[in-house]
Amino acid sequence: MIRKILSPYVKIIDISYETLIWIRIAKELTGCESDYLIANLYIPPQNSSFYRIHNCDLFYELESQMIHYSAECPNIFVIGDLNARTANMNDYVQNDKLHDSILDRVGDLFTYVADEALSCRNNPDAGTNDYGTKLLNLCKSSGLRIINGRHPDGLSNDFTYSGPRGMSVIDYLLAKPINIEKVLKFITSNFTTYSDHAPIHVQFKTDFTMQCNDINSNLMDGEESQFFKWNKEFRDLCYNALLVNADDLSSTIANMDIASQDGMDLCI
Length: 268
Hints:
six-stranded mixed beta sheet
């Protein structure tokens, strides 16, 4: 969901196979010289019926689209459930720097940029799978890096999935090293009773405060915005209210108009 106040600056620009969604955040909101492009991706497991309908390799599709978009925008991020387990294996080409004697020979022909090695990842998941290998190869060929377990705040190095066979890390945020500073927060939150995946919280660097002054609101002149702070004492009351009104909530969701932003706002 995109808040109405942000909708002029956030656009869905492409959807592939109903599982790869590209979102553009305009530079007027980010405060950078160029837009942010965020690929929201879900890669179904290898035995999924998805592949009987779509004969495709989603890692290849992602890389192809990244090449297309990177020509116009360097600020590319990938986030989603990739069903990939990578342990602590390298997501960069190790010992990639050319010897000075070789650089002297080829320096006039092209500029060689060695693969940049970041800090070690703190990954609690020691398992690997075929998708993990594909993800690591994608990182090495595209210059993207896995941010899980590397973000400076230290809140991203935790399991993201809990299933009957145990816990694993399969939900990721990817970015190029130059763009890591644009990720202000990356938090793997606690599991809830509503999903077997842990919520992922990502906060990107923006210049939203400046832009708010240019956006019309529904407030009257001189009227101040009201903010409400959650009180833990009302937790049980809120929970019981949701249970009592469960049928009404289900009916609202079933009849909600998701084709327009106004429809979403009306439901809320």
